[in-house]
Records
---
Amino acid sequence: MYNRSADGMESTILGGDEVSSNVEWCSATTHPLPDDAAHALITDPPYYDAVPYSYLSDFFYVWLRRSLEKIHSDIFTEPQVPKDAEIIVDRPHELSNSTKNIAFYEKELTKAFADGSRILHPNGIGTIVFASKTTSSWEAILKAVVDAGWIITGSWPIDTEMETRVAAQGQARLASSVHLVCRPRENPDGTLREDIGDWRDVLQELPQRIHEWMPRLAAEGVVGADAIFACLGPALEIFSRYSSVEKASGELVTLKEYLEYVWAAVSKEALSMIFSGADATGFEEDARLTAMWFWTLSTGSTDNTNDSSEIETEDEDDEESSSKSSKTTGYVLEFDAARKIAQGLGAHLGNLNRLVEFKGDKARLLPVSERTHYLFGKDEAQAPTKRKKKDVKQLSLFDIAGSNEDEDNDWGEKNLPQLGNTTLDRIHQSMILFAAGRSEALKRFLVEEGAGGDQRFWRLAQALSALYPNGTDEKRWVDGVLARKKGLGF
Ligand SMILES: C[S@@+](CC[C@H](N)C(=O)[O-])C[C@H]1O[C@@H](n2cnc3c(N)ncnc32)[C@H](O)[C@@H]1O
């Protein structure tokens, strides 16, 4: 049973007892509670430009208003959902000439967090739920939290998203919402603590903290993009315990600058986990980036059964054409995430245009099939497309070979490819030879040409086998190459 009295008190029956509460409607920037009144504050703030809540709510609001206006006359005063106080990034569109840009979002969100901190007791605890997948929205919310005078003390990913919704994103997907745990940066008397941090101390503590957290998260099944964002809490605790952080020169360190170091520390730690503690610096930049790319896209299913369809993204901008034919294959990350990962690994995206393609705000790691031309030369790459067998399903993904069991296929028979420049190139060449069913050529490439003589070749191939999603051609091909290792005496 539920009651609402004229003074706004709500009561409900829970376990036989009547429990009362008070529900009020306000903007989060101007909370009605007095200072230090609350012991817990839980908020799920708007995510940047992800959802235009008030416009979407109008669809329901107009009907709710018709039926409930007389009962809750104080709530349904406006004919439509109020728009002005809504904290979102909303670029002008045909329904509005909104001026809610990033600066507005950050400013209002900081106000909301500051008011949250005001009403919270100095010993109180705050929980902020955030499930956005773009690095810029993360940076915006973290800036608002820190600027509003909170110390972030932890961050935990909790599964909140439906599988279908998650998969529908078609790129680095968050399976969970990250819950940031915060405390007001206050003295016991409620005044703000004003401590200045030393940049060197902060930088020294950061890698240690990430080194402790990543294995802990992995043990809980949290990997990939979820783990990256889940590391932000512990990383931010180091920075946010100070009102400001200064370099020896006295220059202030911005949160943006610190976050670059955080992405780098997370990338390095993830890489050392991918290669089981081995020194990943022995691998060239393309290998480091590829491994990290797949790890970021992984969703932590322990049996590695990610559906390969998740990594083929439909052309979202043009549904009509995508329904006809335009499937993009490859592994897509937000450009900014790719840039940050690359930077953290000391890889230069500018050198890797044979491996990564950029389009708008997306970066696509090319599937091996699309690298054939580069790895084998013009003649070899083109010939097999004429040999397509219609009944072989994988051809829709990969046009280089008729069948990977088809020993008669003379594709690329003329010459072996020149050994690729990097370990990753040589693995991809081997995978293509395997896919083309060129067993003898693969043997010669590995033994006589010497591709298999380098232990890094097998270590990287092993890592890729663990990282490629199950059910993909690439996983099958790299496993096919690995299966030759013992027999060839490596
Ligand atoms: C991520 S959603 C929260 C969803 C909610 N946890 C749920 O499961 O329904 C963010 C919410 O913040 C609300 N919001 C936006 N600006 C606000 C403001 N100034 N004050 C209070 N709420 C606001 C939006 O209307 C939206 O409902």
---
Amino acid sequence: MRYLIVGLIAVGSLPAPSELMARDGLRITTFSADITPPLGQPVGLGFIPILKTAEHPLMARGVLLQDSGTSCVICTFDWMEVHNESYDFLRQKIADAAGVHVSHVALHCLHQHTAPAISTAAQRLQLNETDPRRVASAEYLLDVSKKVAAAIHAGQTNWRQVTHIGTGKASVERVASSRRIERTDGSIQGRGSNTKSSPQLRELEEGLIDPWLRTVSLDNADGPVVQMHYYASHPQSFYGDGRASYDVPGMIRSRLEQTSGVFQLYITGCGGDVAFGKYNDGSREARSELAARLQDGIERSIASLERHPVGTMEWSIEHVRLPLRTDGEFSQAGSRRILSDPESGESQRRKAAIALAWIERCDSGHPVELSCLSISHVQMLHLPGEPFVQYQLAAQQMRHDRFVCVAGYGDCGMGYIGGDRIFKDRGGYEQTYAFAGPCETVFMAALQNLLSRAGSARQGARETDSDVQNIDRHD
Ligand SMILES: [Zn+2]
């Protein structure tokens, strides 16, 4: 009956009868679908050139979990990102196919930049109805939803019992590095994913990262059934050449799956201000070395797994309202002005449309959702946007008695979610693509609420609305 207390959601998508059959502990199915866009078509927001070749397929991969109390889906996309109503659309399609409540679907992009970013709302604000980019993106989104739904249906013919949960971690060497290095004068030196054109940036310190890769293994008597790996960094090596690729995470995922026969999920954590830059000159050799070092970390994490009998599963939700920015180009008036100005460039217009789509979503009363899946002592947090690593580190501190894993890049409508200082920083990139205003206090409070509540009692899904408004103007 717990679905009745998920207040804001219509009861039209109650769990399928199959859930009620899951009386004998935890069980799992997996799904995987090739969602590579049609080559040569202007799919996505246009951050990257039209894809002409596919070095690797882009995949949607996930798991559907059920026990006698609840059911949920964790799904990853090899996409740059997905925003607002496009996110809602996919999430609902996944929920319908899986027979779970939409609030129990965690959908996360891995954030590769050799893949599209999707926002129907932004394109509606930026482009005419017949614009080829808008048409191709809408057709692609619909096609992806059908492919993922079909994969979820197919997966449900192969349920497997989960009797044990394993947790492990390993420190990854020379992969992640901060994108924001503080200079001695207090200003910020930006450092992207690839330092080919500025090798001196490789000499700077690694900066604030979370070096730990964490693995959750769901096992039964036959061994591991699914392994989920969490690591916080922008995952791209090189991009912008019209090539689709699942990049470093997909390369590792594919190799591990071939050698182990175990379904692998890679999940990008709070990597908003973290990337490969210090260790990446943008060459294929560097990509191979990065993938080898990250894979080594994953293998050591797997080797460290400690298994425990699996307990019950809980799903908790926290709704927050993030403040709008009111400064210049980020305000509603500023965004509209850019969109209506024929002199505005393409990237300016795209950014204004993304900003305006986010403002309209907030104004419609749509809250930002965070969730936490708890199984035994494991807490898997699902966060929106491109959160900075400070949030992941804080979450782990908040529950050092638990094994806390964090997924970022859920609904990315608000862009980067940094600390409040970014709005006063001199230098650095992320504040130029952050559409929510200062929200550190609200976001930290939401994490605290989720983590303190989740797994604390067998009370099933609960929901609170942190109606905290913080509409300070900032510089
Ligand atoms: Zn990013």
---
Amino acid sequence: MPLHVKILGSNSASFAHNRHHTSQLLQIQDQYFLIDCGEGTQMQFKRYGIKFSKIDHIFISHLHGDHYYGLIGLLSTMHLYGRVKPLILVGPPGLIEIISVQLRYSETHLNFPIEYIEWVPNEYQLIFENEKLTVHTLPLDHRVPCSGYLFKEKPKKRRLNKVFLPDRLPPNEIQLLKNGEDVYDDQGKLRYANAEVTLPPNRQLSYAFCSDTKYKPGLLNWISQTDLLYHEATFMEDMRERAENTFHTTASQAAQLALDAGVGRLLIGHFSTRYKNLDPVLREATSVFKPTSLAVEGQVFTINDHGEHG
Ligand SMILES: [Zn+2]
Ligand SMILES: [Zn+2]
């Protein structure tokens, strides 16, 4: 199944030029992950027809308001809509305390449990795992503890080559073949040689989300060969000093990182309000790394099973 990233917001600091604060909806196989939840995120859900009930995991990068001020509103709406199933929330130290205080003083008792997973600042950690994927934290260099996330599918099973197999196979034989084993009949005679009737597994797709950070070449250790990289590009090269002083990255630096990491495609976002027209920002990045796109709200970026971008 393809991997999709839908952009819900990509402006830094304040709402401007019809651009909202950072938020993205990642779909891997049949699972949805909300990454960052800036103010207005639940309005974006409505705008783009996203069901609140789809979201079982929320990942927050850091405690600057433009990345999580929408969270308490979203949680409250989930509660009002009658959610009872648990929600996994991943984020920095302090986040669950802030949410708890907000809920306590509004005397709101959520109908659903929040399972909070707190990461350790400045560490590359396996922070979440289920049967289909792993998520690692990507330690970033920002003014407050900040972490990106690397989502990666687990190894997949072999695919059945229908050309060489009957239409209906018993479930146990399907499992054996998908696991790479040969199938024998009751007499011990080889019925299907795995190599002849199966195809290699689909590629394990990966997505790296790098939120607010100074240019950090050390990220190459972890994001190399990622299918899709989102990286902030708050400023352009002529503002490099400002980018450094405010712990942000320029479009050219983000593109350099993508180039060095050999990623499939780069998405840039977290644009400064000073750029109403984003064409020059994109031009600066593509001059270094051609397969770059702007993280424009409402757009969906897709990678298919072969790692191709659509
Ligand atoms: Zn920010
Ligand atoms: Zn920030």
---
Amino acid sequence: MEIRKAAEAAGSGAPTAVQLEAINALAKARLNGEQVYVFSVRLCDDQMDRDHERFDPRALGKLAKLFIGKTGILDHKWSAGNQVARIFETQVVQEEGISYIKAWAYIRRGGANEEIIADIEAGIKKEVSVGCAMGRSVCSVCGSEYGTCGHVKGEVYDGQVCCAILQEPVDAYEFSFVAVPAQREAGVLKGLGSGQRTLKELAEEFGAQAEYRALFKEAELGRRYQKELEDSVVRLGLTLELGVTEPVLRNLAKRAAAEDLLALKEALEARVNEMLPVCTQLGGRVGKQEMLESGFLV
Ligand SMILES: [Zn+2]
């Protein structure tokens, strides 16, 4: 999935000798210290953002490397829409319990770029938006692939706000200066381009959230019913002393389709009935009640 986040740039000035070396490793023509202006950009961090997403701190190192050599462009609102800056160095910084990627970028001095440099110095071009592609997002509550478990980011479960943890960096794209802070919201673009879209994203885009939620609830109910069936089959298998261990029974039950499990459960119940009449009447009743409660009795 493609991710775009807000970031911040801070002015710096002339490059150090080491920085100049790194810049020249990327530049087409050799540059001297007077020809470039250096500034830093705070890219992604591991804190939950307003989209209830955060980068996995373990992913930041690889992502930081992917940003080296990437260019900075101006927002379309600005007249010169060409590439103006380039990242030549990145590092993962840990500060007050927060990990973030700090990038160093340079701009060639002269011409229209002087105006941009002046804006960075004045703190006007502080807002930056960065893009990258991440391979996975995981639910912070249960660790499942986000979108497969029923937890919704931004909602609270047992006092914990659910968020999507972004993992497995695939690529880093250019960063762009955002003209006005109000653009921040607009700069947060997701799911564009080659990234795979989730059903949830599509539902959001086409205003079908209510239907999506309803389906999700039903699916959750279905999973619960399946789990109950599994438990019943395992319990019955053990009661009948089939000579198969619990893990084996559980494994088989997990892989079986709901109809097959239901048939097996009924057959095992009938068998238990023959052997232990008192016990099973109870078992049978509980079973039916389970089905009624789950709403899946067709
Ligand atoms: Zn979850």
